[in-house]
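Worked example 3 (structure in, sequence out).
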């Protein structure tokens, strides 16, 4: 069958440079939920890893988030871990596996992934890219070529992201 309808333009991408042991990233969850609710699939939210050295479980948490992505539950997992940063601080990797179990994911596979390091290259690549574009802390957002630093304050960031997303969507509609 030949479908002659025009292809839908690609959704604008919001890269969210995040660290799962970061209290500021937990504060950003409400904004991310609001953006997902407002835009749905018209805005692609992409989790990017930027584990900070000051948080000893952040690198493992980033790998665990990649395993959650593989198992189809990236954002539920990220939200569950960020919602309980203190437990991650205290318990480390066993907590990451426990959250997977609570979400009905294959916890044994999480445990294996953390041991065999199968997601390390993705985390390293994200971190290197983040450093290359000037990310210094989390959360940091990149949309439409503009970097917005949420590590100091979330104040006004969601509104700025919405302005940029609305502009990008309007431009895409004009081209379609």
């Amino acid at each position: 069958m030949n479908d002659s309808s025009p292809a839908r333009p690609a959704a604008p991408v919001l890269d969210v440079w995040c660290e799962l042991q970061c209290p500021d990233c937990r504060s950003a969850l409400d904004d991310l939920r609001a953006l997902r609710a407002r835009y749905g699939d018209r805005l692609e939210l992409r989790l990017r890893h930027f584990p900070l050295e000051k948080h000893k479980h952040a690198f493992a948490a980033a790998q665990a988030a990649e395993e959650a992505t593989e198992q189809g539950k990236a954002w539920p997992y990220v939200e569950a871990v960020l919602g309980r940063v203190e437990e991650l601080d205290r318990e480390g990797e066993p907590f990451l596996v426990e959250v997977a179990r609570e979400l009905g994911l294959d916890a044994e596979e999480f445990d294996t992934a953390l041991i065999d390091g199968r997601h390390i290259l993705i985390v390293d690549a994200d971190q290197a890219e983040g450093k290359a574009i000037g990310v210094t802390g989390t959360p940091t957002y990149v949309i439409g070529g503009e970097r917005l630093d949420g590590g100091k304050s979330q104040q006004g960031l969601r509104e700025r992201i919405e302005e940029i997303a609305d502009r990008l969507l309007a431009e895409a509609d004009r081209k379609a």
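Notes: The chain is about 55% helix and 10% strand. Residues 68 and 74 are 5 Å apart (CA to CA).
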